[in-house]
Amino acid sequence: MKALRVVFAASTALCAATAAQATDLEVTHWWTSGGEAAAVAEFAKAFDATGNKWVDGAIAGSGGTARPIMISRITGGDPMAATQFNHGRQAEELVEAGLMRDLTDIAEEGNWKEIVFPSSLLDSCTLDGRIYCVPVNIHSPQWLWLNNSAFEDNGLAVPTNWEEFVAAAPKLQEAGIVPLAMGQQPWQTTLAFQTLLTALAGPETYTKVFGDKDAELAAGPELTKVFQAAATARDLAKDSNVQAWNDATNLVITGKAGGQIMGDWAQGEFQVADQVAGKDYTCLPGLGVNEVIQTGGDAFYFPKVGDEAITKAQGELAKVMISPETQVAFNLKKGSLPVRGDVDLSAANDCMRKGLDILAKGNIIPGTDQLMSADSNQQVNDLFVEFFNNPEMSAEDAQAQFASIISSAD
Amino acid sequence: MAAATGPARWHRNLSAKIAAIPMIMTALVVFIGGTAWTVLYSFTSSKLLPKEKFVGFAQYERLWSSSKWLISIENLAIYGAFSLIFSLLIGFVLAALLDQKIRFEDTFRTLLLYPFALSFIVTGLAWQWILNPDFGIQQVVRNLGWENFSFDPLYNPDIVIYGILIAGLWQGTGLIMCLMLAGLRGIDEDIWKAAKIDGIPMWKTYIFIIIPMMRGIFITAIVLIASGIIKVYDLVVAQTGGGPGIASEVPAKYVYDAMFLSQNLGQGFAASTMMLLTVIVIVVPWAYLEFGGKRRG
Amino acid sequence: MGNVTRASADVQVSPVSQEMTGPRGPKPRTVLSRRNIMIYGTLIMVSLYYMLPLYVMIVTSLKGMPEIRLGNIFSPPVEITFQPWVKAWAEACTGLNCDGLSRGFFNSVRILIPSVLLSIAIASVNGYALANWRFKGSETFFTILIVGAFIPYQVMIYPIVIMLREVGLYGSLTGLVIVHTIFGMPILTLLFRNYFASVPQELFKAARVDGAGFWGIYFRIMVPMSLPIFVVAMILQVTGIWNDFLFGVIYTKPDLYPMTVQLNNIVNSTQGVKEYNVNMAATILTGLVPLTIYFISGKLFVRGIAAGAVKG
After folding, report:
1. ipTM > 0.85?
2. What's this model's pTM, rounded to 2 decimal places?
3. How far is C219 from chain A (nearest CA, A)?
């Protein structure tokens, strides 16, 4: 037995010339569904190949559940070795408090500034010129998902943009189909509004409103148009009695609803139901009007730890996560887009390809997580969940409240 | 009692004092200490991490100008009043029924208590389905022929809080029933015999004799229910997520959302300070009367 | 007791109602008496209502996902499958660890037993001291404790992280057991205090005369007389601690995570396909432990213990 162990140890040492010895690294994340876990497994596999060991600490539920745990562990002086956050401003304070490890030297060594595309991803990891996180993927929320047969069976062409969709709605309603499926959770309603805003008022307006906090623009006629469209969307979704986003997606899949505004993660649901992109369902990035992609996504941070072996292994993990092979393997499983433009994604499906094209064209906007504090984002969420659920709230009222939130946002 | 009236020598009651050390520590360090800490930081602009950047009453001003907070309080009042009344009523009646020397008492007790064993998350999910107008009760009744039957509490902002109440009562009354049952079992059999000899009807015996004797149990039950009401959070998250819109928001959810979704600790602490203040205003005078004065006979 | 004599005047005594006044009397001979119909009828109706969600959950857990997508939640499964149960217990993935709920089961037991025992032991002694051995200030501490019962847990997360860090227990099982004991203390102490206070004073006095001390009276008189309330306390704690997710996950490390972490991960996945059948199976499985304890400990609700002690 002992002899066997020696052999094992020797062979591991041979395999991992870079790592002096195997280090257990606890990694916390909230990727727990089937596809997500398969994607994480790619990270773990690649990391284990360096001779270290990935210890998985998965906790489902991003905001309300996982975050307090991560923050408690870090402030409790007993941190995990690496942890997921949405990049943007969520972890800003932890970085400021000096609890997160500075990755700048690793980033320079790996030439991240050149390879990360779009470069704005790296900007959200940067504070005062230092880099504190590894971006791993891009998820874009601005998509309209349509059930083809819901339109075709009722003698309608499958819409190619929002206006056609709205025009087709009455016929769907006559056929007993809910035109627009929409879940009731706050983030979903905000997502719908933001998508309408980028699609109908354009990415520049989006950046000015959320980035520059231009309250005048938020109160102006350009946004009035968007709010009216939102009121229309509210009307189209009034018979959609579901809570969770995937229940709403399911309404589309089963043909009970015509379409849904949702992020690219909705695709997983279609795939599981054996639907084929382009044949059974259609995806319209940016509602088919303004084809842009919001560069939200996930990133990994590395809390400071005293242990030297762990610190070393953290560096290994950071390098592994951004390497081209891992990026391809991970993102194909995750259904998200890679953070570097120099990788080959020939296995991508129809909708993912659309996303890649837009990315290649550089039609990108930053996510609101990157532009505003969590507090301001939450206020926006509260407003839109109320607006989309209360038919008595007029578009003008909502716009006035929105402008006031923007004027005090940080 | 014995010691309270006796000479106050320190070693008198020494065992009791030693035995109470964990309680004293918990009261002083955790509850007083933790509360003081919370109140202190409610006057700061702490976001993700507690920071000593004092901003006066700014967090409180924002709190009271938030429509979400005002709706939360209103919901809590409605939910609280009904939950308290019905939990006590249903709990007591069920306990009294179980106390009739019935057959299958174990089975009935377990059946009424089992919801308490299930997690709120899935309790909420199951009730969310049952109350869903498209495939729950409403649809079933409509399929039976009543086309106009309408029962969609979770999708109607005016009555959504009652939809949550239904699930809350379902989950919690079993425990109250057990508590009441324990109380009933602690009542001396001679009392019943005496009442029977006097020919008092059962309901009168319960109301005028048994319930006053179960005062302690009722107080425990009330505190149990009330503290649960204040803390109601998971059920709302699982059933409605606070919706439709913000129609079913509750204060504990406001606190949690502020602390961890908005990453605005100061705001969360301000909201919890208000909750705590309300509790103190109500509980402390009552507790003083109840526990502080001379012990009742 | 003034009511007793006054009320006796206006009672119509029928054979049936006489039976009704004596819940402790002999078992009624006729099975279908009015009383029985009322009692059993009510209990069965209420039980049916209580079982409705369980029915939905069980039925759902036995269906395949395509059948669930069709949408009738009340219809029994066309094709019964136990796959969701197998998956929930042994296959569902929590991140990379695909061994379902079974992974955290032993951890949950390791957390449950010391936490329940310690919290009930401390709280019952607290309640006993408060009811029978009051000392100066004892009621003040108790009042603070009661107010503490109303503090939302979430607010205490950070202060307790700091406290545990300072005493060096952060991340350990001991730390978690202490946290459970602390948060169980207010209600449990109240529970025991009020119950012990209702124990006849004569008993206590008689024991004092016999020379019994603090612990003697506690173990030989109070505990044996109070089995039903210990059962209630156990129900309360077993459920609370077994179903706890927040404390387990915040105050320990992954190698100690309780089963609810897996439950949460199965049920609460925000992205990806929701497998409702597995969710329901996982919940029922998680609930089995408290349920078993309810059923077994329920036998301790024996009637007449208190009465027996008074007479004896």
Report:
1. no
2. 0.84
3. 40
